[in-house]
Design a protein that fits this description.
It is built from 26 helices and 21 strands. The chain is an alpha+beta fold. It folds into 5 domains: 206 residues, Hypothetical protein af1432 (Orthogonal Bundle); 151 residues, Beta Polymerase, domain 2 (2-Layer Sandwich); 94 residues, Ubiquitin-like (UB roll); 150 residues, no CATH class; 77 residues, Alpha-Beta Plaits (2-Layer Sandwich). Strands 1, 2, 3, 4, 5 and 6 form a 6-stranded mixed beta sheet that branches. The chain has a 4-stranded mixed beta sheet with strand order 13-15-14-16. Belongs to the relA/spoT family. Keywords: Hydrolase. This is Metal dependent phosphohydrolase, HD region. In eubacteria ppGpp (guanosine 3'-diphosphate 5'-diphosphate) is a mediator of the stringent response that coordinates a variety of cellular activities in response to changes in nutritional abundance.
């Protein structure tokens, strides 16, 4: 589709009447829907937007061959079914004009309102920006849309309506494009609809996407449902009669209905249970709508007296609603002929909320407390998106976090004060800590679940009471990224590590540059801001810190940077003393995030060491006799002199190989000997026996220095059955 010729949008005046169209067109349906809830003057504004959109899209066609205007009108119809306000319907009609025509946001703000222009801006793609690839462009568009949504939820409601109509007309596109859009829908749009409680739209998007992603599976399941429908009609009718009769006996006023499960939900169940369609008996679900919450529990009791409940298949979403506001009682029963029945019990207002979700605010124009709470919960979720956005500059990471947070299954846990938090299934204690507050996560050191101490990686389940203990000096561990799953936790940990690593690299780069400057007999204090500004400009970087980080990572040679600085400086102050000449970099240990102790030789204080600058990992510390050094293509400019910080209390890992008699209890004796030497065992492995009376046991122990290591070895040698102890220089 190409852009139309430029025109003056002011030509389309409010006095113009919409063109006469056949009575059965989608435009007449839009009018009928609007008349249900908008005032005449508001409908006039909607038709003004229609005229502008119609004029702007004149001559443009969809892939189906229809005039392009049919798409924005269809989107407006879907949005109008939620009874969205006039500004939203105008934005729905205009949502593509900025992107595909010469109409600007200023035109829309002038002719309609800044509010309409703001919604349209949130719906427009970033087509003026060039990205490295389509993936980055897609991720950045999602981020833009979701951040606009965080300021006005109407943006996403219209975007979902747009996506729904695109999915309804997807058959007119090329197969590869159909597949891409369908996958995008199932990854992002249908989970968002589910997260906002838009159940009907969620189910339709899921079914449409399933139809195009797995066309053969869809046809097979659809055909099987049609075939089973006739066979099960009598059973369904009997169940409905039985339920109605039982509820009347309990004097409960209720509306009972049965519904057929959609193809995508049946497919999910088949995958989850590893079964065929013939083994899925519960393709029908029943819904009981009663007058109030008390009747929900009475109806539950009545149904449990009618059919036997299946153990473990009851969920109370009345007491603890889902994060999207959904409330209902769920139970699974053994029906007649052994048929499992899924039954949902809820009130009318709960049902409205289940179908319309956050859109119930507009659809029912009610002051229902629960709908207000849903609005607040939605705003809190959107606020979390903003928090992730503020921590992350990478749109792909933002999209990754969003997908994780849209995970449909949830667990509900309690804080020490009794507040309920909803988290994705599979969340850990650390995910919970970050959900409470960023500071709680950053400083977490221990946790209790139901008064029992647990590891921070412990997976939480519904009903857990969780307490997280913190310490002021504690900080996030990079290993946490291996098990946390929520977007907030991942972004906070990554953000902290990025900042911490950057600070360490700056310090390391500064130390390396100072050494080079002193080799030129230049006092580092003599370098002024103007000299740094010129150097940063020459290197096309943003700041002095960027130069120092590049030096630490070996991307720039410290001697060359020092030489360039001397050329830039007008006059330099020479170092007054040789004692300030060529400092050695001090190694503090594992707390230096820009400094890594090589895993091949496990250097510890007391070992002679060398530092090697790796472009990706920073400064790598090796022992002088490390065999790995010989493998490097020795570049003298990448090796730096380093020394251990004296009197450090940091623990270091060392690998020991112990040849010991293969007898009962030997491992326990060695573990006790290591503990006596005040060392901790981090890992232990036993090599496969060669059939002899001796076996090699490899330990990774923690020691302070070589002296401490000697104590550990002496303690082990006191065991009579120990034949040989050696320090491993290559990790097993």
């Amino acid at each position: 589709m190409t852009k139309t010729a430029k025109f003056n949008s002011a030509e389309v005046s409010q006095q113009e009447q919409p063109p006469l169209l056949p009575a059965d067109t989608i435009d007449s349906r839009l009018t009928l829907i609007l008349k249900e809830y908008l005032q005449p003057e508001e409908i006039d504004l909607v038709w003004k937007a229609y005229r502008l959109s119609n004029k702007a899209h004149e001559g443009q066609k969809r892939s189906s061959g229809e005039d392009y205007i049919s798409h924005p009108v269809s989107v407006a119809c879907i949005a109008a079914k939620f009874h969205l306000d006039a500004a939203s319907i105008q934005a729905a009609l205009l949502h593509d004009v900025v992107e595909d025509t010469q109409v600007t946001l200023e035109d829309i703000a002038t002719q309609f309102s800044p509010q309409v222009a703001k919604i349209v801006e949130g719906l427009s793609k970033l087509d003026k920006i060039h990205f490295n690839d389509a993936t980055h462009a897609q991720a950045e568009n999602f981020r833009k849309m979701l951040l606009a949504m965080s300021q006005d939820v109407r943006v996403i409601l219209i975007k979902l309506a747009d996506r729904l109509h695109n999915m309804q007309t997807l058959e007119h596109l090329k197969p590869e494009k159909r597949l891409r859009i369908a996958q995008e829908t199932i990854d992002i749009y249908s989970p968002i609809a589910n997260r906002l409680g838009l159940n009907r739209m969620y189910q339709e998007l899921e079914d449409l996407a399933f139809r195009y992603i797995h066309p053969l599976r869809y046809k097979t399941i659809h055909k099987a449902i049609l075939s089973a429908r006739g066979n099960r009609k009598e059973v369904v009718g009997k169940i409905l009669d039985d339920i109605n009769t039982k509820l009347k006996g309990f004097k409960i006023k209720a509306t009972v209905s049965g519904r057929e499960k959609n193809e995508s939900s049946i497919h999910r169940k088949m995958i989850k249970k590893h079964t065929s369609f013939s083994q899925i008996n519960d393709i029908y679900a029943f819904r009981v709508i009663v007058e109030d919450e008390k009747d929900c529990y009475l109806a539950l009791g009545a149904l449990h007296s009618l059919y036997k409940p299946i153990a473990g298949k009851f969920k109370d979403y009345l007491a603890i609603p889902k994060a999207n506001g959904y409330q209902s009682l769920h139970t699974t029963l053994f029906g007649p002929f052994g048929t499992p029945l899924e039954v949902q019990i809820r009130t009318e207002s709960m049902h409205n909320l289940a179908e319309a979700g956050v859109a119930a605010h507009w659809l029912y124009k009610t002051n229902d407390t629960h709908i207000t709470q849903l609005q607040q919960q939605t705003n809190q979720w959107l606020k979390k998106l903003l928090e992730i956005q503020s921590d992350e500059s990478d749109s792909l990471e933002f999209l990754e976090h969003l997908k994780i947070d849209l995970f449909p299954d949830e667990v509900y846990v309690f804080t020490p004060k009794g507040k309920i938090l909803a988290l994705p299934k599979g969340s850990t204690v650390i995910d919970f800590a970050y959900a409470v507050h960023s500071d709680v996560g950053n400083h977490a050191v221990a946790a209790k679940i139901n008064q029992t101490l647990v590891p921070l990686r412990e997976e939480i389940v519904t009903g857990d009471h969780i307490e997280v203990m913190t310490a002021p000096l504690a900080k996030p561990n990079p290993a946490w990224l291996n098990f946390v799953i929520t977007g907030k936790a991942r972004s906070q940990i990554r953000g902290y590590l990025r900042n911490a690593e950057s600070n360490d690299l700056i310090i390391l780069g500064y130390s390396m540059l100072n050494n080079a400057l002193k080799a030129f007999r230049i006092d580092p204090d003599s370098i002024k801001k103007k000299h740094w500004d010129k150097l940063v400009l020459d290197y096309h970087l943003k700041s002095k810190d960027d130069v120092l980080v590049d030096i630490a990572l070996g991307k720039k040679v410290n001697v060359m940077v020092a030489h360039q600085l001397t050329n830039i400086m007008d006059g330099v102050k020479k170092a007054k003393s040789q004692s300030k000449f060529l400092d050695v970099i001090t190694i503090k240990g594992s707390d230096d995030m820009a400094i890594e102790l090589a895993s091949c030789c496990h250097p510890i204080p007391g070992d002679p060491i060398l530092g090697y600058i790796n472009k990706d990992r920073g400064l790598i510390i090796h022992t002088h006799d490390c065999s790995t050094i010989k493998k490097y293509n020795l570049d003298p400019e990448r090796w730096v002199d380093v020394e251990w910080e004296p009197n450090s209390d940091i623990l270091y890992k060392v690998s020991l190989s112990v040849l010991v008699a293969n007898e009962t209890g030997m491992l326990a004796k060695m573990a006790s000997a290591i503990a006596v030497a005040s060392s901790n065992i981090e890992n232990v492995s036993v090599e496969e026996s060669d059939g002899s009376n001796f076996v090699n046991i490899n330990f990774v122990v923690q020691v302070k220095n070589r002296l401490h290591l000697s104590e550990v070895i002496r303690s082990l040698r006191k065991i009579t059955k120990v034949s040989r102890i050696s320090r491993l220089k290559i990790e097993k």
